[in-house]
Specification:
0% strand; 193 residues; Arc Repressor Mutant, subunit A; 2 domains; Tetracycline Repressor, domain 2
């Protein structure tokens, strides 16, 4: 049985993910090479590959970190339990992420990578599968009579609407007016409850 990473190993892994995130946010997915990440983190390429053997592993870990942070923000609203957060508090938290332009840019870069790189696409699909699972679990809390497939389909639509709206709400693709913001919140809340 393998022990988990050491505290020093976790710090190194975090530093590598930080470097990858900086590159994605500033230079874009085309510049996210293993060599660039190693250089940005000040380590040898082999050291980076010890933690992340391939670029897709790096992308998957970065997406996992983003999802975990998002779930932790929602959980913090409810004393540590994601499912205990009410729908409005959860919506405030996840919609608030659209205001973080660096996060939205990071996702647009990852989506572009996934469009041209099957390994990146697998990492993105795995991320959205986990994200959808969490949303479906949340939906079942508010609609316990709903079937698991019913909750899953509502969760899929919720995730699609959230991701598409991030482009507009961040200002990248436009700026929705107050009526559109209110309608978006109503649609998302209806999907959750």
């Amino acid at each position: 049985m393998s022990a988990g990473p050491t505290p020093k190993g976790e710090l190194r892994r975090t530093a590598l993910l930080d470097a990858a995130e900086r590159i994605l946010g500033s230079a874009g997915g085309a510049e996210l090479t293993m060599r660039a990440v190693a250089d940005a983190a000040g380590v040898r390429l082999g050291h980076l590959q010890y933690y992340f053997p391939a670029r897709s592993d790096l992308v998957a870990a970065l997406l996992d970190r983003i999802l975990t942070a998002s779930l932790e923000r929602v959980a913090a609203l409810a004393g540590g339990d994601v499912t205990a957060a009410g729908p409005d508090a959860a919506l405030d938290s996840v919609l608030g992420e659209h205001e973080d332009l660096s996060l939205v840019r990071l996702f647009t870069e990852v989506w572009a990578m996934a469009a041209h790189d099957e390994a990146a696409a697998r990492a993105v699909r795995a991320f959205y599968d986990r994200y959808t699972d969490h949303v479906a679990e949340f939906i079942l809390r508010f609609r316990p009579g709903l079937t698991a497939p019913g909750a899953r389909s509502r969760a899929e639509v919720f995730v699609m609407v959230m991701e598409g709206s991030s482009l507009f709400r961040s200002g990248i693709a436009g700026t929705p007016g107050p009526a559109a913001e209110a309608r978006l919140r109503t649609v998302l809340r209806d999907l959750l409850t």
